[in-house]
Amino acid sequence: MNFVECHEEPIHIPGYIQSFGYLIGIDANSHSITFFSKNITDIFNIENPEQLFDKKITDFPESLKSIIESDIYNSLDKFTRRENETYFDKVVIGDKEYHFSVFRSKGNIFLEFEKVIANPNKRISNKYDNFYIIDDEQEIWEQLLTTLSSIVNYDRMMVYKFMMDGSGKVVAERRSENMESYLGLHYPESDIPRQARELYLKKRKRIFSNVYSETVPILSKTHETIDLTYSASRGMSPIHGQYIKNSGASSSFSVSIIIDDHLWGLVTCQNPEPKHIDLEDRVQAGIFTALASNAYSSFRSKNELKYRLELNEKSSQLKSEFLKNNSLFDSLIQSKKEINELPEADGLAIVSEENIVTEGVVPSRDIIENIIHWSHENVEDNIYISRSFLKDHGEKLNLDENAAGIIVYFIDRGKKNMLIWFRKEFDEHINWAGNPEKTIGVFTQNGEEKQIVSPRTSFQIFTENIKGNSRRWNSRNIAALQSVRDLILETSHKNYNTIKRLNDELKKVNEELDSFSYTISHDLGTPLTVMKLNAQMLLNSLTDGSEKSKSKINSIIEEIDNMAVMMHDVLQLSRAKHSEIQLESIKTNNTIEKISENAKITFNSPKSEIIIKECPDVLADKTMLHQVFLNIINNAVKYSSSQENPKIEIHGTEDGDCIIYKISDNGIGIPEEEKHKMFKIFNRMDNAKKFKGNGVGLSIVHRIMKRIGGNVDYESNKDGTSFILKFKKP
Predict the structure, then answer these.
(1) Which spans in 347-466 are helix H?
(2) What is the mean pLDDT of residues 398-415?
(3) pLDDT value at position 582?
(4) Dihedral angle over CA of 451, 457, 460, 463, nearest 10
(5) What is d(CA 141, CA 138) in angstroms, rounded to the nearest whole number?
(6) Does the pLDDT value for residue 213 go beyond 80?
(7) What is the enclosing helix (H) or strand (E) of 506?
(8) Cα–Cα distance for residue pair 415/484, rounded to 1 Å
(9) Is the pTM of this model over 0.90?
(10) What confidence score (pLDDT) does residue 315 get?
């Protein structure tokens, strides 16, 4: 026994039609008869229906005379040029008048007949514009039901709106006094499953005249199943037939409500007694339903335009406030009340790295941090929306009622900048038309037993209480969110352009400064050399001069030497930025040993103990690497030379893809309050001013390490300083 899901039932190919209809199918090319309903002999004088197969309508000039003489049949190619478009005519068969419909579908032309039923009580209004003067959604649908009641006049008439999940709700109703009200009741998705909704979009008027009448089988020479999607008399599925019987009805009629090419809902009518509606009346009902649908669409568009204009006005005001601040985070905080209210949220969290600023009713900080962590791990898009967040993740994330619904918007994932809107838990009570729980039943179709979801037998109100949800985030809330997003992107773009312009100006100034430094350092070299030579000659000429004069000249020579060293260092700094580099694997041991020995001589510190341990190879530029170790080791020797037992230790280690060198000394250390200016040019620590130097060396090191893809840092206390050089591993 096969189990068939509701949405899997092939309701478009039932294999039979309803008893009020008569059907003949002909091949679209040859016009030969390929299938027909078994009851065709009831209206046409044909003794043996089997003789119809492979014959043309014109082969039966007497029996099928009324078809042959009809205007539609005589222009069949013209009327069947387009697929699935139905054309109507009337023909007299015997002494009775019939509606004659023609359409082409999937290689066949369908010729469909049903009796004309006169309705002397029909009162149709000619005021087609009545719907457009109504400025209220509910009134539009009530006016539609009032209008249709004069055409079809079923005992129960309802406007049924589809929800986002496929379930439905009765939003308007007109009924006889003895009928129970269904207004406001909900119906589960399985009542009108997916494939049924798709058919309502294609075939927009559907009638079941009598659910208790016998169906009429379709006879086909090839025994293939015929697609009856567009047939007015298509038979109903046994499941739907049982559903109508269970509801206490014998007849039903429905018209699709189409809004923006989507199935918005249905006008659905039920009658306790069998009732057939004439084809013309069904068409008329379809016209009025289309008019009401267009009026509703116009009403909705007008309201939406009004809302969008109001939203644009609020966004413009927000934009003005945003542009008053240089920081996006500051702008968001200043306007947090307005940002919270735009999507009608209960609360808002503004997140920037480790900072969280809230507005309105929000969960605790711990819960917000849980949501932030969950969002980074689970949300792939920039926007995440849920009204069932508490129900879906409450236990795992330890949520409370203030986080039942959320919207997450990632401003910048890298900087952990995001907005989170919150909605409180909403106690939802849904009144269903009967218990929506599915039950399984067995049905026989085409001689085969099948298990399928059985239609419920009771339509008594069943109330479902739903926990863990918030109010729905509607389309306007989403539009407000998008407005905030666009405003943030626009503001960020303007800030980016401002920062880019300032960076470009700063880059130009730095380039000019580097060029100036290079020029000064290079061009002043010769005058300084001349000045020093002249001073030395003057010193040598003072054979009998006073000691005071000699001291002053020596002081001049010393300052010239200091200036020359500083200019040399500035030149090295400029080269560190602009020189071409060639990265290669370099052995460091010999370089470190030579620099260490020379440093002891340079700074007249023979008692300095320099311990050199492991020296792994590094990836660097040979010339620049020498500059780095020269400056760091020289500083270590220089600033520890005044100690009683100066000690320097140099040690290299591997750390994953990196090589870490640590150069430690027991020198004067670096005061905590001066750490911020360590790598700035010409900056010297207060406790280092008794030592010779110009404050350029560490700037050179910092610039070189950045250029070769490494980094420089340090640790310092009263017992000394350790510089940490991080290189890429070869």
Answers:
(1) 365-378, 389-397
(2) 91
(3) 81
(4) -20
(5) 6
(6) yes
(7) helix 475-523
(8) 19
(9) no
(10) 87
